[in-house]
Amino acid sequence: MKSKSISLAALAILALPLGYGFAQDRVGSQEVRPEAPPSAPQATPVVARSIGSPPALLVGAGDLLEVSLYGMPDFKTDVRVNSGGEISLPMLGAVAVSGLSVEQAQLLIEHRLSEKGLFNDPHVTVFEKEYATQGISVLGEVQKPGIYPLLGSRKLYDVISTAGGTTPKAGRYVLITRRNDPQHPVRVPLVTGTPESMENNVTVEPGDTIVVSKAGVVYVVGAVHQPGGFIMENGNDITVLKAIALAQGTNPNAALNSAKLIRKTPEGPKDVPLELKKILAAKALDLQLQPDDVVFVPDSAGKSAAKRGAEAVLQMATGMAIWRIP
User: Fold this and answer.
1) What b/e sequence results for 177-201 when a residue is b if at least 16 CB atoms lie within 10 Å of its CB, and e otherwise?
2) 294 lies in the same domain as 234
3) What is the CA radius of gyration of the chain?
4) Could you please report the per-residue DSSP string of 252-270?
5) pLDDT single digits (tens) 27-53
6) What is the pTM of this model?
7) Which of 108, 130, 152 delimits the end of a domain?
8) Same domain for 206 and 232?
């Protein structure tokens, strides 16, 4: 009996290091997978810092605010900011809040309550229930320009989609005028189908104005294989030769010596003769085209076609398809 007790004790002593080692393994397996603390700051992409999140939306005249004080149900009130930028609150009277963020307005009201000795440690909540400008204006090269009553924050691409998407003449950038800073519009690239496109899908707020830029268009009409308008991609140079190449060249019966350039001027459309035959043979200067220029190549088979006036040629160009240069 005594020997059996000694054996059990020995087994218990031998088991202690094994259990301790097992416990160490358990702890070790947890320590090799450390987790970042919840408060660890996250890196923000450079693009997002520069054009992404807009500054905090500021309180403005006409906004409707809900102001409440913790523990004081009678203090809770809905109040509209008057034209002078003030709200009227119980026990405080007029408080100027225009131009402040919601957080700044909360701190100001708390300070005023403490300053008057009404509360030692007040906790105020300010909630923006209604902005005076509820909608987001979408202008420029979109299918349905207008003001859209979108409440709260929205993404740029969502708002453009609400306006029916862009037109074929849309350029490669968007100008966003912020409600808080109307003097400094933000230019955002309008590029889709790339990783950068999601970084450019910035947040817009009620009261912002979005203007989709217009790209320059050069038109080639008449005796060419693919007449139409060709996007200049916000300033890319296009010459007469390049325009003819984009239109896939002239037809065999094209009257090259009768070609002309129609250019819009403050005095109206102006005809500029084009020595297209010499330009194609590199014997004449290849002219630089401007947005809305029309290169007209008449058909030698019809004498009346070569005599079409500038107005008729411009009318012909406006009905052409728009092609974007790859």
Assistant:
1) bbbbeeeebbebebeeeeeeeebbe
2) yes
3) 35
4) TTB-GGG-EEEEEETTEEE
5) 333 333 334 334 333 333 333 334 444
6) 0.54
7) 130
8) no
